[in-house]
Amino acid sequence: MSEVAITYYSDVLCVWGYIAQVRVDELRRHFEGKLVVVPRLVPVFGDTPKKIGEGWRARGGYEAYAAHVASVVARFDHLTLNPDTWNRVRPASSLVPHAVVRALDLIAREGIVDHAALSAEGRGPCEELAWHLRLAFFRDGRDIGRMPVVLEVASEMGLPVDVLRARLDDGTAWAALHADHEAVKEEGVRGSPTFVLNERRQILYGNVGYRILEANVLELLREPGDQASWC
To answer: Which CATH superfamily is 4-227 part of?
Structure first.
């Protein structure tokens, strides 16, 4: 293959998605011109009162989950964590930030934003906004479950907030987000982050190391697509 596509599913409130971005960035640098990253959104934290408030109640609730996240982030030198994250700042849902990411995708396709100016890392608009939202939550302790906060982050990036809001108000951003949720079901995505390659033949889920991602991309670049199955 001359080019490989990797679909990257994540939730902006997922700590493992926060961790995985540096691996995606390194893949893009290493395989420059040979790798296409397709970001999609999975609603792991669509209902945090249920997922954490109820799901972690027996283990200590939000405070215990916050401690768990802190212990995970502490293992990675390139990341920082605000002490308020999940302790005092508890976004109700990732659906709001995800919808704004999809609104950006819509206007980017219309040529309203400058892709190159948006990211120094070569990320697409959706990846870049998702990364800034992760920083706002995990690093800065801001509640990105609230629409005003998400739009504030977008404004700080120089994005046209009025245009984003219009795509939210007319429902097109929510429809695009629904398409992500349908893709999650169709591709059997279990959680965040999940990497899908080779027409769903290779699905890598969870805290997947960079070398594993690199090996999968290398193998696809070496082998033509018609040799993917021997049966």
So the answer is: Glutaredoxin (3.40.30.10)
